[in-house]
Design a protein that fits this description.
The chain is of the alpha+beta class and about 260 residues long. The protein is built from four helices and 13 strands. It has a domain of about 110 residues: Thrombin, subunit H, CATH 2.40.10. The protein starts with a helix and ends with a helix. Keywords: Disulfide bond, Hydrolase, Protease, Serine protease, Signal.
Length: about 260
């Protein structure tokens, strides 16, 4: 299909080689309200060569989940760093190198018509973080755990405005795969889940890939892709797509276990 291909093309133009938005007026999270990091202490920003590249979620003292599409698999892991524990995206909190990462093996093999599938990766930090009211791991949805349509979820990320970067949350409703596929005119695989609002204009944008979507205190999804490359989210395409953590939970658990044994 043409639109997803255009989406990836314009994503590359927008982000440039470093993954930093070209326009300082570009919005990140759309339609959110300001929060403090203590309301989302699992929140992480992923930096590549010193620039904000993507977002993620802390799931253990030394492990972050993010979008597989955020990583250049040919690059050394130490070119990436992760910041946690700060409402600011580029200062304060703890800032650690990534020692290694693992990308879901299906990410490159099973991409569907130009959009990412199995869009998830695990980052191991070079040292454990120190848990506090500003830094905490979030539990994940259980293996194949489903969420009913219309459930309230929370997306978190940063927005850029004249005052700098503001940590924000956006409340969204889950959209079932069949309805989402009709909205987006695109197949939704079992490794994907959708969320949005009926009116649109709330969700994530280009700098938010990997942003955590939380339901009932557990990590349900990671921001993955959308169809409206001009506005990121709109009335025409009010739903956006997230990597569905529960369907990839077995891979996550097994990969983490194998890393401990090596």
């Amino acid at each position: 299909m043409l639109i997803p291909v255009l989406f990836l093309f314009f994503q590359a133009l927008w982000l440039g080689e470093t993954g930093v938005a070209v326009s300082k007026n570009a919005k990140f999270i759309i339609g959110g309200t300001d929060i403090d990091i203590t309301e989302a202490p699992y929140m992480a920003s992923v930096h590549y060569k010193g620039h904000v590249h993507c977002l993620g979620a802390l799931i253990a003292k030394d492990i972050v989940l993010t979008s597989a599409g955020c990583l250049r698999t040919s690059e050394n892991a130490t070119l990436y760093k992760v910041r946690v524990g700060s409402s600011q995206i580029s200062e304060d909190g703890e800032y650690h190198h990534v020692s290694k990462f693992a990308v879901h093996p299906g990410m490159t093999e099973e991409n569907y018509e130009g959009v990412p599938n199995n869009d998830i990766a695990i980052l191991w930090l070079s040292k454990p973080v120190t848990f506090s009211d500003k830094i905490a791991a979030i539990p994940m949805k259980d293996h194949n755990e489903e969420i009913d349509e219309g459930q309230v979820t929370q997306l978190t990320g940063w927005e850029f405005n004249e005052d700098g970067y503001k940590l924000q949350k956006v409340m969204l409703q889950t959209v079932n795969a069949t309805h989402c596929a009709k909205q987006l005119k695109h197949r939704i695989t079992p490794q994907m889940m959708c969320a949005g609002t009926p009116e649109g204009d709330k969700g994530f944008c280009y700098e938010d890939f990997g942003a955590p979507l939380v339901h009932n205190g557990k990590l349900a999804g990671l921001a993955s892709w959308f169809m409206d490359w001009m506005r990121c989210v709109s009335r025409k395409f009010p739903a956006q797509v997230y990597s569905k953590v529960s369907t990839m939970r077995s891979w996550i658990d097994e990969t983490i276990k194998n890393n401990k044994n090596n």
